[in-house]
Amino acid sequence: MNTNQNAQTAQTVQTVQTDVAIIGAGTAGLAAYRAAIAAGKRAVIIEGGAYGTTCARVGCMPSKLLIAAAEAAHEARHTAAFGVHVDGPVRIDGREVMQRVRSERDRFVGFVVRGVESIPQDDRLIGRARFIDNTILQVDDHTVVRASRVVIATGSRPAVPPSFGVFGDRLIVNDDVFSWEDLPQSVAVFGPGVIGLELGQALSRLGVRVRVFGVGGGVGPLSDPEIRAYAAKSFNQEFSLLADARVLEMRREGDDAVITFEDADGQTVTERFAYVLAATGRRPNVDTLALGNTALELDGRGVPTFDPVTLQCGESPIFIAGDANNVLPLLHEAADEGKIAGENAALWPKVGPLTRRAPIAVVFSDPQIAMVGKRFAELTPGSFVTGEVSFEDQGRSRVMLKNRGLMHVYADRATGRFIGAEWIGPRAENIAHLLAWSYQQGLTIAAMLAMPFYHPVVEEGLRTALRDAQAKLAQLQEAA
């Protein structure tokens, strides 16, 4: 490049001075921007990709659209038990299914995009940001941002094991599913976590041949062995779920992904699939930020070490929020983290704690899976009692023919306080909110049982589990 070209390039680079620079315009980034502005600081938000949060574009909303179509198909096939007979087989038009998924997804994304575009233009920068030092950022080749503080809110992306590269373009991640124009004939799903279960079951109900492969026996986020075993058995009644699969070979032949594995009976089986969906976890988007140019200490994943209470990275004026820190990759948690990161960045060096709400997680499978409060794996053996209910004979569940499920609620032996629950069952998304509110208020099992329960409702199953826990607590008191 000659001297004139260097001069021209230098003239095209602008410098922006700001109090707070936010990298990422997703859920956490937008919350951080609003919090910084509300605190009276100048803030800019930098986005290197298309506007629209992970949830709206490739996460919770499009997946629920696919699940809704799957539920419609499933219900239409299972009316005979009610004495309602639909003439002829249920016909699923894959193109129509995916057209609705994409159009409604685009509508949700549009809401987010309009929200971002309502931010003053001077506060928005388009481009990939990378650190020059702790608080100076280079945005592509057009802007240098000199900030006093920085919030990293770059989100995450699917993590795919290198060995899956053998499948070539037959390998997809969940993001790709929502770009399909039609449904494929078959899909192998690796990873029976939240994404794998939701998409695997939905595709199966929409007529796609599905087999789900797992490692170590995990099913969704469940850690209670009894609930996990019940869930595995329940899902296997509908589609193949090998929660602890032994895969012997993976290869590509023509347009097919070919997988050889041992089935549930220990027999060696070779099957061909149109696609392989890798639902094998996510990784924080921090590898392009040039964090090596900062003084930050990085963990083994290359993520800055940070205080989970304040979200501050070491003693620096840098904060990290949302999926980028990989603590709780849920939308409501990302929003909370973004808010506190933005507030703390604005008020730095005076920082305050993040008050987390009650832990709550839902898997939109059928039956649904939910967890509230402490997980079974987090509890100290001998410190709690377990209340149990089966939904197989629960009144309202049987009325609706939704009577599959098992619930465990955990109560502290010393105080009688409700400390957590794991379960699979009908309307778990609704019951989970009741339990999350109870957990956050520190209610005892006795106080929860004093609340009203209508009849006949699925929540009466929860009451049965609470009564079981209360009876066990009473037995402990009598024994003492």
Tell me the layout of helices and strands.
Elements: H1 3-12, E1 14-23, H2 27-38, E2 43-47, H3 54-58, H4 60-77, H5 94-117, E3 124-126, E4 129-131, E5 136-139, E6 143-152, E7 156-158, E8 171-172, H6 174-177, E9 186-190, H7 194-205, E10 209-213, H8 225-236, E11 240-242, E12 246-253, E13 256-262, E14 268-273, E15 275-278, E16 282-284, E17 318-320, H9 331-347, E18 360-363, E19 368-373, E20 384-390, H10 395-399, E21 406-412, E22 418-425, H11 428-440, H12 445-449, H13 459-479
Put the structure in a nutshell.
This protein is an alpha/beta fold.
Structure description:
- With 480 residues, the chain is an alpha/beta fold.
- It has three domains: 3-49 and 127-158 and 283-347, FAD/NAD(P)-binding domain, CATH 3.50.50; 162-280, 3-Layer(bba) Sandwich (FAD/NAD(P)-binding domain), CATH 3.50.50.60; 360-479, Enolase-like, domain 1, CATH 3.30.390.
- The chain contains 13 helices and 22 strands.
- It has helices spanning 3-12, 27-38, 54-58, 60-77, 94-117, 174-177, 194-205, 225-236, 331-347, 395-399, 428-440, 445-449, 459-479; strands spanning 14-23, 43-47, 124-126, 129-131, 136-139, 143-152, 156-158, 171-172, 186-190, 209-213, 240-242, 246-253, 256-262, 268-273, 275-278, 282-284, 318-320, 360-363, 368-373, 384-390, 406-412, 418-425.
- The strands form five sheets. Strands 1, 2, 3, 4, 5, 6 and 17 form a seven-stranded mixed β-sheet that branches. A five-stranded parallel β-sheet has the order 8-15-9-10-11.
- The radius of gyration is 25 Å and the shape is globular.
- It starts with a helix and ends with a helix.
- Residues 1-9 have low confidence and may be disordered.
